[in-house]
């Protein structure tokens, strides 16, 4: 096996006789792009991917998904992409008002039994709904 520099382009004819071609690439084009990482990095990736299959990791990731959902809701409802005001005091006050607004929205949904999960409808799905009526 010949040594290749990282992220080198290999001709298709170089891969045809190789019995490990399917493990290296799934590309169907004439040229293939291979990324060869140092052994330590490859081992770290394998270890991380193995941990992603554990129950503890999935539990921790579920918490992260909840936080990301809260951030998405804050951005969608209170438009927190940019602060409306200059200065730390006014920006801090804006964040507090936004948090209070989100809490009130969530309390209202909980008291009235409405789910908070508003899934995004794709453009294609909206178009199909529009023409279905």
What does this structure look like?
With 133 residues, this protein is mainly alpha-helical. Helices cover 60% and strands 6% of the residues. The chain folds into two domains: 8-36, no CATH class; 45-112, no CATH class. It has a two-stranded antiparallel ribbon. Helix 4 crosses helix 5. It is built from six helices and two strands; from the N terminus they run βααβαααα. The mean pLDDT is 78. The longest helix is centred in the C-terminal third of the chain and has 25 residues, at 88-112. This is Transposase. Residues 12-107 form the Transposase DDE domain. InterPro entries: Tnp_DDE_dom (IPR025668). It comes from Streptomyces humicola.
For the record, the count of structural domains works out to 2
Anisotropy-based shape: elongated
Count of DSSP E strands? 2
Helix tally equals 6
Helix content: 55-70%
Radius of gyration (Å): 25 Å
What's the helix-strand series?
A: EHHEHHHH
Unreliable runs: none
What is the strand content? 5-15%
Largest sheet properties: 2 strands, antiparallel
Mean pLDDT: 78
Kindly report how far apart the N and C termini lie.
Answer: 62 Å
Q: What is the SS-derived class?
A: mainly alpha
Strands ordered across the widest β-sheet: 1-2
InterPro entries: Tnp_DDE_dom (IPR025668)
Domain Transposase DDE: 12-107
Protein name: Transposase
């Amino acid at each position: 096996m010949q040594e290749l520099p990282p992220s080198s382009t290999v001709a298709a004819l170089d891969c045809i006789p190789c019995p490990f071609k399917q493990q290296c690439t799934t590309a169907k084009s004439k040229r293939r792009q291979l990324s060869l990482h140092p052994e330590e990095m490859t081992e770290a990736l394998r270890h991380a991917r193995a941990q992603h299959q554990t129950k503890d990791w999935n539990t921790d990731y579920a918490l992260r998904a909840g936080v990301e959902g809260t951030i998405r809701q804050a951005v969608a409802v209170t438009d927190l992409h940019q602060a409306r005001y200059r200065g730390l005091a006014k920006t801090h006050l804006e964040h507090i008002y936004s948090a209070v607004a989100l809490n009130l929205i969530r309390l209202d949904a909980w008291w009235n039994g409405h789910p908070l999960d508003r899934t995004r409808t794709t453009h294609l799905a909206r178009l199909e709904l529009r023409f279905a009526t």
